[in-house]
Description:
- The chain has one domain (3-101): Glutaredoxin (3-Layer(aba) Sandwich).
- It is 40% helix and 25% strand.
- It has four helices and five strands.
- It has a five-stranded mixed β-sheet with strand order 1-3-2-4-5.
Amino acid sequence: MAAEFTTEGFEVDVLGSEIPVLVDFWATWCGPCRQIAPVIDELAVKYQGSVVVGKVNVDDQPDLAQQYGISSIPTLLIFKGGEVVERFQGAPPRSKLEAVLDSLKA
């Protein structure tokens, strides 16, 4: 199951992570977000220990959405070493996400 990231914990949980982090910016009212949610949860299980996978609800955490320029959802950001190294708007194919995660994991 994917983690829930908040403004309060983002610096430690995401920016301070020793391993890559996939962050799904989403909202409950967003159809495409609900479609990709099972894939995000499956990736969280598959990559447990090598990639942190989590979500940011843009309605609950508007400051994070603004900070990262999230203008449409779902938007997926992949962080490594506290920096955004990949950005996907919309719901990319699972295979594309896995290829990027495989290339980044330790």
